[in-house]
Amino acid sequence: MKFIDQAIIILKAGNGGNGIISFKREKNNPKGGPDGGDGGDGGSIFFQANKNINTLIDYTFKKFIQAQNGESGKNRNKSGKKGKNLTLFVPLGTKIINYNTNEIIKEFKYHKQSFLLLQGGWHGLGNYRFKSSTNRTPKKKTLGKIGETIKIKLELSLLADVGIIGLPNVGKSTFIRSISSAKPKIGNYYFTTLRPYLGVFFTKSKKSLTFADIPGIIKGASRGIGLGLKFLRHIEKCKILLHIIDLSIHNYKLIIKNINIVNKEIKLYKKKIYKKKKWLVFNKSDLIKKEDIKYKIKKILKKINYVEKYFIISAINKKGLNTLCKNLSKII
After folding, report:
1. 269 near 276, Cβ under 8 Å?
2. What is the mean pLDDT of residues 86-112?
3. Which of 64, 163, 213, 292 is the most exposed, having the fewest neighbouring CB atoms within 10 Å of its CB?
């Protein structure tokens, strides 16, 4: 299924049905009095989060969605039928945003979380309602109220504990495939990962860690080069970021340059993400000698002064992954 993480739609709740004017006209009761019934309430629009949905694709082709209108009243003092409420299902992590004001109306964080967005219009009153001792033949009714309308933006941010960042082809997808059942595409060319992926790792104590793998970030991404930074919002809620680095590159100065490229682009996008806790994860250790590993890392750490922790792994051989995940589980 295609991954869609944004959609813009116009929503309208149902209109309330009108009340009617009606009088009894029976053979044995020619002046039976008013019997105009009320209209039915218009249908309201609800949203509900569903953990089994992971895309907003259902809303890419529906630009206008309306709940059912209430029916008008009937004679013999019968009310019109109420319009059916409409429930729209969205993935966990979806935000409802007012398109005109950019205000976040609601964010969904757990399964079956429900929210009333638009109230259907109230019913109109039939003339039976206006009968009194001084007015036995009322010719008054009221119209149903118009249902509420709004233009919204749906925005999906994946809910993950750990965000995986880095240049293309550093082994991010191999990493998430090695620790979970996620199956992102792997290839020896740029942008094999075209959408974010979620993977779940379970520790021995059955604790789960959810990882979000986003497409690679390249120089100029903040200006829209490559896939740009449009997927970075999927790691905004992560508690920690893993910066995956290709340690097999011969020149350690180029490795330092690559680290700085990713950091700079993230900082240009949003400082809030840039300031998150970050661990460096040196990958592809299986491709170089042990003495070269120590030499490179020593040189790199001298230039990268923000590092709290670093790990050496081989994602393809699954070397060092348990140690890394064990450390992650202690802080999450």
Report:
1. no
2. 95
3. 64
